[in-house]
């Protein structure tokens, strides 16, 4: 059985180590916060906050306290606030240990596309280009194939890039792959998924 | 030194002209200069170029200036929340320059700090790098981005004293300090102007040197995505 959204998030949470400062993207990456367990992780929200807490209780929403997805959130005892230039200073400066984010396509050389589809409505890259260029480690969490059953793990991206050669690890519903010289290396497969099945769903070169 | 004005109309008096370049603070609808935006609408100033991370939503924030066709060009990182924006953009009425969010913030900060350009690895190898100088430092490519110096910046803070020292609240700080720094003239609207000496000098977020005019007023502070959890989950 391929992993579901929560199992992918739980697997991605294993990438995080005690003491890390981490930025989580929108979608499945947001769920990763539910699986960090006892690890001491500080979440960054790139609109200007370290130490992001959970959603507020009903009636306690504060319009001055939102995350990068514009959702109301809460602060923690460790929280600090800062302006956008400082926020992206710590991102660009490599102080954020890891970013976990979704993608439309990833290529075997680590190229990432997740911000625009030509001909469709373009909303903008937000902070995605800064994050993938700056943070210590980029982990992509996404379905292995699109809704037409075509591989999203490619030899080359077809969509406009968010970053060139920026992805370190790909976690999909079928397994985990690392970007290494020459292509992708299978780290593990989802429970019940064989290596052959993973290879068959992957357009990118897989090296041993 | 008189920085405190009675209202937004008076604070913008003499500062506006068609075709001008404005830097605006705020992220989404959080920490946006609501009162100054309303005054811009009222003034009728047009052909504006505005550097702001977003462009409000339909009918609120900078979206109001779209409804009245006062904006010619936006410099933003994300504009997905606004149907009128997309309509004007797709019909060619509105120009749009996408900047990565951190690049936009740093362009504002740099412009305010007398730095006309800086090199960043954000956007290397993407469409953002098209036409920009590429320089290699220590084996890594970087692209040249320009500092922004705006004719006017409009920002929102929580508290100010009458000398323009500003304190922001939580994530409503966001783009406000860099936007303020990037303007030749900065007008700030705040929730409360407090007596000189009542803000702790060690806890000023933006020194008054960057702020030329101040108004106090009531803010709607609309929430874009109201997300909550149930009590029993605690």
Summarize the helix and strand pattern of chain B as letters.
HEHEHEHEHEEEEEHEE
Beta-strand segment tally of chain B: 11
Tell me the major beta sheet of chain B.
8 strands, mixed
Backbone CA Rg of chain B: 18 Å
Low-confidence spans of chain B: none
Number of helices of chain B: 6
Beta-strand portion of chain B reads 15-25%
Largest sheet of chain A: 10 strands, mixed
Q: Quickly give the structural class of chain B.
A: alpha/beta
What portion of residues of chain A belong to β-strands? 25-35%
Shape designation of chain A: globular
Overall pLDDT metric of chain B = 96
Instruction: Summarize the amount of helix of chain A as a percent range.
Output: 10-25%
Instruction: State the helix count of chain A.
Output: 5
Main sheet strand line-up of chain A: 4-3-2-1-5-8-10-11-12-13
Low-confidence stretches of chain A: none
Distance between the termini of chain A: 24 Å
User: What general form of chain B does the structure show?
Assistant: globular
Oligomer: heterodimer
Pfam families (chain B): CoA_trans
GO molecular function (chain B): transferase activity
Protein name (chain B): CoA transferase subunit A
InterPro entries (chain B): 3-oxoacid_CoA-transf_A, CoA_trans_fam_I
What does this structure look like?
The complex is a heterodimer of chains A (208) and B (234). Helices cover 17% and strands 25% of the residues of chain A. Chain A has five helices and 13 strands. In chain A, strand 10 (169-171) and strand 11 (175-180) form a beta hairpin. The radius of gyration of chain A is 17 Å and the shape is globular. The two termini of chain A are 24 Å apart. The mean pLDDT of chain A is 96. In chain B, helix 2 links the parallel strand 1 (21-24) and strand 2. Chain B is an alpha/beta fold and 234 residues long. The longest helix of chain B is centred in the middle third of the chain and has 12 residues, at 101-112. In chain B, strands 1, 2, 3, 4, 8, 9, 10 and 11 form an eight-stranded mixed sheet that branches. Chain B has a three-stranded antiparallel sheet with strand order 5-7-6. Chain B is 20% helix and 25% strand. The chains are: A alpha/beta (208), B alpha/beta (234). The interface between A and B is large, with 54 and 57 residues.
